Amino acid sequence: GGDHTITYPILQAVAEKHGPVGLVHVDAHTDTGDRALGEKIYHGTPFRRCVEEGLLDCSRVVQIGIRGSSYDPDPYKYCRDQGFRMVPAEECWSKSLVPLMAEVRKQMGDKPVYISFDIDGLDPAYAPGTGTPEIAGLTPAQALEIIRGCKGLNIVGCDLVEVAPMYDVSGNTALLAANLLFEMLCVLPRVKTM
C-alpha cells in the first residue's frame, strides 16, 4: 500500500532499534531524488533522506530493476557515489536472478536487512496498477526469485508499495502484490515453511 514515502519513517524506526541496515530495493526508480515541486519528502526521495540521516548501511544497499527516463543526464550518479549496488533492469532481462541473489546474500551477511519492493519494479504488463509505470521491467517469476533469494538473511522488516487501485482495472496488480507480500512474510527469520 501507500507510496514509497512510507519507507522513510519505517526505516527511521528500524534504525533506532538496529542501527543502519542493509537494503534490498526492487524498483524502476532509485527514489534518491532531492526535491520535487520544492518538497524534500515525496515518493521519489525516501532513500536520499535515509542516507542523509545515516539509516542505511550504504555498502549493503542493492537496487534491482532500475530503468526508465530521467530529467538528469546521469540519474544514477548519486547512488554510485553512496556505494549502492545498482542492477539495471536490462541486466535482468531473460535470465534467472538466482545467481544475483546468491551474491546479494553474501553482500548482506548476517547484519539487519530491510526489503522494500515497489510494484513498478515489475513490467506494467504484469502490474499496470501503479502511478509511474515503466516498460521493460521484471517478471513475476524474477520477483519471486528475488524475494525467495532473501531467505536466510537477517530481515528486520519489509514493505510493498505504489499499488494504485484506480489504475488496476483487472485487479492483477493487487493479486500480484498480495502474493509478493505473502512471499516476503515467508522469508522472515524463524518462519517455518513446508
Descriptive terms for the model:
194 residues; alpha/beta; Arginase, Chain A; 5-stranded parallel beta sheet; Ureohydrolase; Ureohydrolase_dom_sf; agmatinase activity
Distance between the termini: 28 Å
Looking at the structure, the CATH topology is: Arginase, Chain A
Based on Cα principal axes, name the global outline.
Answer: globular
Instruction: Give the structural class.
Output: alpha/beta
Protein name: SPEB protein
Organism: Himantopus himantopus (Black-winged stilt)
GO molecular function: agmatinase activity; metal ion binding
Family: Belongs to the arginase family. Agmatinase subfamily.
In short:
A 5-stranded parallel beta sheet has the order 3-2-1-4-5, sandwiched between helices. It has helices at residues 7-18, 46-52, 77-82, 98-108, 140-148, 172-186; strands at residues 21-26, 56-66, 85-88, 112-118, 154-161. Helices cover 31% and strands 19% of the residues.
